[in-house]
Amino acid sequence: MPPISSPGAEARFDATIAAEEKIEPRDWMPEKYRRNLVRQISQHAHSEVVGQLPEGNWITRAPTLRRKATLLAKVQDEAGHGLYLYSAAETLGVSREQMQDDLLSGRAKYASIFNYPSLTWADVGAIGWLVDGAAIVNQISLCRTSYGPYARALVRICKEESFHMRQGFEIMQTLCGGTSEQKAMAQDALDRWWWPTLMMFGPHDAESAHSQQSMQWKIKRQSNDELRQKFVDQSVAQAEHLGLVLPDSDLKWNAARDHYDFGAIDWDEFQRVLNGGGHCNRSRIKARRDADQDGEWVREAMLTYADKQRARAVEDAA
Ligand code: FAQ
Q: Dihedral (C-alpha) 67, 58, 125, 205: value to the nearest 10 degrees?
């Protein structure tokens, strides 16, 4: 049940936000604030869950036992992130079933990046380095979000994501220090994942439908373009360290801005992928639908067991 409005509730909400304090589930909040959070947190959760699929594709083909164990742990972490985030969204009065249904029916989005295929082992390195790297830039900023349960979930997620990024970077380092074929594989993976990673930060600020309101409510603390720029700036030195070339001929240092300038993003491609036209949209949703169906008997068994336990407790108490 959402908290009931009382005189002064909106002023208290505004004062809490202005004071940089957290809004908690027991607090009154504007309905639009609640709905905006449900939208963002649930889509974030879906991204973590669907995000297991590109790397999951390589668990059985990891080149060594150590790589396999690390990748397995990393992919399991992503599932855990989904669970923290679904739990945070549930505190806003939306059920796990409803969120699941929204994902499987295509009503809810998940990050566009996960509709790209992971073609080689180097893609596992590129995903960890770039995709987790971009996710951290965004999520470190979101640790200061105004909604308490979301902020607390993100603190833990960020700690795990930094391990994920390092394992990806280390895979890239190993490939770049290997044979010329291995280095070429790393460059090819970078070429394919770079631009889709820049799209992860969302449309430019002027085109971003939710940013203005989300920044006002301190749900988002930095804009899509600010975060994208931060990611580009940090990636240049990392690519140089690897001896790889970022696939952007317009990339150059701009001393006046104290940032790197970079080329134009293909927003038509972004929209195409959002609208279902990516390489893997269908297979990603099919995998989630199959998992939902395959898990039906487990959920049923658990519910039956819980019912039996309850009935036994009632009998014992009688
Ligand atoms: N993909 O008005 P804005 C990860 C949608 S986690 C798909 O700018 P907003 C970990 C947006 O939802 C990656 N859709 O929206 C990992 C909205 O649609 P709606 C996920 C996108 O919310 C690593 C519409 O466009 N991270 O990778 C995308 O203010 C490796 C208008 O956009 C998060 O979710 C996109 N890239 O800003 C896992 C972080 N961009 O809802 C496995 C939390 C925009 O009106 C392996 N979320 N859209 O139908 C956020 O920070 C924000 O929601 C943004 C978008 C920045 C994603």
A: -140
